[in-house]
Amino acid sequence: xxxxxxxxxxxxxxxxxxxxxxxxxxxxxxxxxxxxxxxxxxxxxxxxxxxxxxxxxxxxxxxxxxxxxxxxxxxxxxxxxxxxxxxxxxxxxxxxxxxxxxxxxxxxxxxxxxxxxxxxxxxxxxxxxxxxxxxxxxxxxxxxxxxxxxxxxxxxxxxxxxxxxxxxxxxxxxxxxxxxxxxxxxxxxxxxxxxxxxxxxxxxxxxxxxxxxxxxxxxxxxxxxxxxxxxxxxxxxxxxxxxxxxxxxxxxxxxxxxxxxxxxxxxxxxxxxxxxxxxxxxxxxxxxxxxxxxxxxxxxxxxxxxxxxxxxxxxxxxxxxxxxxxxxxxxxxxxx
Length: 336
Description:
The chain has eleven helices and 14 strands. It is of the alpha/beta class and 336 residues long. The strands form two sheets. A nine-stranded mixed beta sheet has the order 8-9-10-7-11-6-12-13-14, sandwiched between helices. The chain has a five-stranded parallel beta sheet with strand order 2-1-3-4-5. The chain starts with a strand and ends in a 10-residue tail after the last helix.
């Protein structure tokens, strides 16, 4: 689902997406303040997948808008998509500087605009333009396992905590390091089938799908664990039904949010995991409070890490330091 703030001229921009996907596009036509929307109305749309903003309808100043976008990404999960015209290139450059790449440029030709829409709505979203600069190799993109075969469970403290995204990013990061890793959908969401159908170059195999060296197995699927080095079980929201299995894994990863209303769920989950070794991964945490949260939540059984914002389901780099720490290495992003 999408909520789209638009001018009358651009209100039909996503009509093809709406008709082909069957998903609702709720159109809000006319001038609006993004900052006011973030503060007062966004929680009504937190179950939506996308929030699209036609930059021509903004009432906010550029500075206020950019700050509101930054805060939005810390508070909410829907992906932001920006619709820009020829006169919006300066603010688009500022958005990209904040790592907002889902921008549709209406000054391009129709075919290019449709391609941009498709990319913005894809599983990974629009990627950062590839730089031609030589990247330093001082920090190699390598993950090491602390045991020959490692079973990892990933669970959320509440619904929509980002469990599937984290689990798939972890598998992708391991696969990119040469580890034979498998993602196992150990919940009833059935999201994996839709994700892989929309993922370019994903190959259907007997067990499920292969992508970039990783194996992705749907709920109820079968696989030969002798062919892999690590299995990542996406068990969904932590509950009485799955907590026992979660505790028995080699590595137990708990995903939660750092906002005040989300931390109550984090505390409740940790109480159910008393005396269990847990890797706690928090998102939506500003740099100013990372140290405080690390101090309050860390103990001999709980290591706290902070996830970076990323739109990509298969982004192996954004949280590489965290994945190394979770699997046995050191993390430089604990206290912030």
